[in-house]
Structures are given as structure tokens and as C-alpha cells.
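Look over both lines:
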Amino acid sequence: MPTLAKVIGGTLVLSLLLACHPPSATPARSAAVTWAGLRSSHYGIRPFPSTKGWVEAMKDMASRFPGSEPVGIWIVGTMGDNRTCALEFPGPGATPNIQFAAEDRHESTLKAFDEAGVKVFLQVEPADAEVNTLIDLVMARYGHHPCVAGFGVDVEWHKEADNPKTGLKVDDALATQWEARVKARDSKHRLFLKHWDRLWMPPTYRGDLIFVSDSQQFTRVEDMVEEFSTYWAAHFAPNPVMFQVGYPVDRAVWGHMQNPPQELGTLIAQKVGRACGIVWVDFTLRDVDPKIR
């Protein structure tokens, strides 16, 4: 999940990259952080916070952006090896390229989010598992929860074994198919696609998609804001966009700030110029919310 400049060896500055990929025209809109929250994974934070801790941390993050809705990117399936998706709940039996857990990791927390008014997108790292199958399994298990806003695919890990370090690009046909599968259960559910390079997103299909950037390895806040706003958000306008921020490797960007999520999120939203989401990653959650238990 590096920045675009670093992907090509660090020899091109962002301005040259943007010249090669000019942004789409963006209608003038007021800047706003519509969603604010956290990314959760079983490998991202140790010790793993309690259910109460997650609820409080989600609300705390939203409180830094008045008027925003607390939202989480809640990972329920990780890449077990480079061909298998490990779902964190019991399953129906042998399913190609999918492993199941002996116990459910998420039911009690999702119930608490229901009661607290927190919304979450259930995300997978698909590896070689069929994404349509993952959608069916995950949404059948958890889609009844009022807190569930939709489903997410981390494209970096889509067929990663044969497409190392980047994953397989999502074409228009796949995006259309996946979105229809997500909405088959509930038309209000939305699909997000996540990557650090917009070229891995569907070329023209937009539908009701949300586009999430998890680009990292920045040394200057100006570069981060420029890439997120111009290379990413403008290209996908008017669809909603979200940004995963707070990576340890980006500490030079946010580590000196008094309130990193609020200050960094505000800078991004002001440059994006329309509604967006700011999601702090769990790797450094205790750095910005030391009270979480």
C-alpha cells in the first residue's frame, strides 16, 4: 500500500504522475467529513480492545468531526495464505479457498454497534476465494444487523498469489457483479473497493460504489493531501470516497500533530472539497486514543 510515487521507484514526483493521469472535473461542493471511524483487524492492534472500547473509540473518532457518522471498516476475513481467505466465523463446511474459524469473533461486537448507532462495512482480503461466495457467506451471517452498511473488498489481496503486491485489477464486469450480489439482500447495502492505485479500480463502472484509498509511505502531509484529493477523489467524483490514514510508516506526517485524526482529516476534506470518510487504522489507534481498553 505505498504511495504512487514510491511504486515507480521514487523517481517521479506526484505532480508528474498526476500529469500522466489528469483528474476528472470535480463539481464545487462544501468540504465535509461525512464518516469518521476506525479500521479493525485481528492483527492490527494488540491487545484487541473490548467491545465497549471499540464502541467508545468509534464515537470518539466521529466526535472530532461534528456532524459526522461513526463508521468502521471491520475486517471479517483475512488472507490465511496467499490463496486462502480465512473467515472469522464458523462455516457450512468445505468451500474452495476459504477457511472458517471454530468460533465467531464478531457477533457480540456487531450487536453492540447496533445499539450504539455505529455503522460498519464488513471487509475481506479475498485471496483466491470467489468474492461472490464471500459476499454470500458474510452477508448471510451478519447482514441482518442494523449496523451493517455494506461489504468491502481489499483489492490488493484479490488473487494476490498470481498478482503479487498489487492484486488483480477489478474490471467493470466484476464490479457490477459484486455490487449486485451485495444489494441482492438489501438494496441499501453498499460495496466499497479499496486499493492505493486507482488503476486497480473499475475503469468506468461507478454504480453506488464507495472508493477507499489506503495509500501510505508519505513523508510530507502536502503529498498525502494532494494524492488523496487529486489523484483519487477527483477521479471518482461524484461517488463517495474514504481514506485509511494513521499508518506507522506515515508518522512523520501526523506524529507531530496535537489531534492527528482531526487535523489530518480536516486537511484532506478541505482539499477534497466534497463529502468523504476518514478512517484511522488500528495499528496506531492507541497513539491517538490511549484510553481505549
